[in-house]
Write a structure and sequence with these properties.
heterodimer; A: 3-methyladenine DNA Glycosylase II, Chain A, domain 3; Alpha-Beta Plaits; 13 helices; 11% strand; B: globular
Chain lengths: 386, 197
């Protein structure tokens, strides 16, 4: 029955194809490099369809086999992480593009989640969520100005009257400032800052507003004297000088330069300061931000960026009177007899927090003074916290 | 089967220098301008391109000679050649990812570009039109691949130098590259008298 139908249908089908191809569209023409023919046999059309279908099936099956045999198991987390990343492929993480970092952070337990600099902590948190790793906070950074020698405190070698721009001024024999390491004060950083976080003080020094600064580094790149650096925001005690001149020379040129006297080195309770090339530098990994060096520096070259230092307060109920705090206090602000509650002299206390760290009874707390208490005297006013 | 080795060598040299696809036929310009900004990508592309060209031409020659010629399906060659190259490249892509991930990350990105390249399609088409044998086809494929690599490397080395040159603003980027390509093409014209096919 089926054979009979096929027997009748096949020539009919061929006839139909023949009519369609050779009668109905005889002048359609064939384009491309193909030889034009007068007559196309139905067999050729069927063959063409057959061969193409066969090749298609062959390739399809081959590709399916290849895909199944050579399947690479990609952790779906990698794809998730890659989508979370900014996709800029900037390489700031130290891996080859975002994909490289995504694979590393998912595959390697030692790779931290917070290495994407453009993504900041928002991306780090998401990656931590995906990978199940602990999100360590990205240590926030801030731009710090390593010069305090404003117009009134430093000398000028000559009168510069060119374009009021640091990059222009530096072309004139390295700038008019006698200290070749200092801030020229023509505000190139202020104009470079995309966040309006820099203003120039009355003394021609850049003031960085901590609330607006995103540590993008534009000012660092713009400053021709490399006076601005990015530093950890929490390490608020900074030696604000870059002068590598000898102490005597620095003193002649600027009233607030580091003269490498070594006072801070001797003062520092954790040995975080070293003098190198006539300039004291703080190892911020060791620094406990106690602020002792700020007090001791004879030229006030060290700047404390904490506007209001807390004061120690001893809870008399908990104090055992063991005198540890009095011994450890660098400014002798704590007095009291043995086995009786000790008292902090708030005038003397500099808020370094060392007594709090040493007290075995945890009787000492560092409390911020009331707003009425005047902020500690500083050479220049800290920009208002808005 | 008698093989005319002299002819094979002639085809090889002719396709690499005299009929260089980029400089005398102006094919494959998209990739040519795309990857020649840096030497590293140009070299990576050269290797991948030549390898795909050889295998693709061989596969297409097989299918053309043993399927399309006997059944008189020559008119399907464009469709089939593209399909063969696409299928092969896709398979190679998958296999490379599994077997040599390092190589995949270096060259994998070029594979996708190659599928739609006109030189890859032109070589099997020329092979088919000229009724070349296997060795002649391979010579044409290798010659074209190396010729394209030569063009890429020449252009990449010039464009790396060009970064430092003082190019007028309106000519910066692609325009000056086209001017350069024209000049190199003029230089390649000098090869034309070397061999007469």
């Amino acid at each position: 029955m089926v054979e009979q139908i096929a027997h009748i249908m096949t020539p009919l089908f061929h006839r139909m194809l023949d009519i369609v191809v050779n009668r109905l569209i005889p002048q359609a023409g064939v384009g491309g490099s193909t030889e034009a023919v007068e007559y196309v046999a139905p067999k050729t059309i069927l063959l063409a369809v057959g061969v193409l279908a066969a090749l298609g099936i062959l390739f399809g099956v081959a590709l399916a086999i290849v895909a199944a045999r050579f399947v690479v198991k990609v952790d779906p987390k990698v794809e998730q992480v890659r989508e979370t990343l900014p996709g800029a492929n900037c390489g700031a993480c130290g891996f080859a593009g975002c994909m490289g970092y995504a694979e590393a952070v998912v595959g390697n337990p030692d790779v931290a989640v917070n290495m994407c600099a453009p993504g900041k902590s928002a991306v780090a948190e998401k990656i931590a969520e995906i990978t199940g790793k602990r999100a360590e906070k990205i240590e926030p950074k801030i731009a710090r100005v390593f010069c305090q020698g404003g117009a009134s405190l430093s000398r000028r070698r000559f009168i510069y009257s060119g374009v009021m721009d640091c990059t222009a001024a530096v072309l004139a024999a390295g700038g008019d400032k006698s200290c070749e390491f200092g801030c020229l004060g023509y505000g190139t950083c202020m104009r470079a800052c995309p966040f309006d976080a820099i203003t120039m003080s009355a003394d021609n020094l850049p003031l960085i507003h901590p609330d607006k600064c995103t540590a993008c580094g534009k000012c660092v790149a713009a400053c021709p004297k490399q006076v601005i650096e990015l530093a950890q925001a929490s390490k608020a005690v900074v030696i604000s000088c870059h002068s590598r001149d000898k102490g005597a020379d620095t003193k002649k040129k600027c009233q607030v330069g580091c003269i490498a006297c070594g006072m801070c080195v001797r003062t520092c309770p954790v040995e975080a300061i070293k003098i190198d090339n006539n300039l004291a530098r703080i190892d911020h990994g060791k620094c406990i931000v106690c602020g002792l060096c700020v007090k001791k520096c004879p030229t006030s070259a060290i700047k404390d960026h904490i506007p209001l230092r807390p004061k120690a307060f001893i809870d008399p109920a908990q104090c055992a009177g063991i005198d540890v705090c009095a011994k450890v206090c660098p400014v002798n602000a704590i007095t009291g007899d043995l086995r009786s509650a000790h008292v902090v002299n708030r005038e003397k206390c500099i808020g370094c927090g060392m007594c709090e760290a040493r007290c075995p009874k945890k009787a000492i707390t560092m409390a911020r003074p009331a707003a009425a208490v005047a902020p500690k005297k500083s050479r220049e006013k800290e920009p208002a916290r808005v | 089967m008698h093989i005319n080795w002299e002819h094979v060598l002639t085809i090889f040299i002719a396709s690499a220098l005299i009929n260089n696809f980029v400089f005398s036929r102006y094919l494959g310009l998209c990739i040519f301008f795309g990857v020649t900004k840096r030497m590293e990508t140009a070299v990576g592309m050269s290797f991948t391109f030549t390898a795909v060209m050889l295998v693709g031409a061989a596969l297409n020659w097989l299918i053309y000679t043993y399927v399309m010629v006997p059944y008189q399906l020559g008119f399907l060659k464009i469709v089939i050649f593209i399909g063969v190259v696409a299928a092969f490249v896709q398979a190679a892509d998958t296999m490379m990812k599994k077997m040599t991930p390092a190589l995949y990350y270096k060259l994998g990105i070029y594979l996708a570009l190659i599928v739609t390249n006109c030189i890859i399609l032109a070589v099997p088409l020329i092979n088919a039109d000229e009724h070349y044998g296997l060795f002649e086809s391979m010579a044409l494929a290798l010659g074209s691949g190396l010729g394209f690599s030569l063009a890429l490397i020449i252009m990449a080395s010039i464009r790396e130098k060009l970064e430092l040159a003082d190019v007028p603003k309106s000519f910066q980027g692609l325009p000056i590259s086209f001017v350069l390509t024209g000049l190199i093409a003029l230089a390649f014209l000098g090869f034309s008298g070397m061999i007469t096919l």
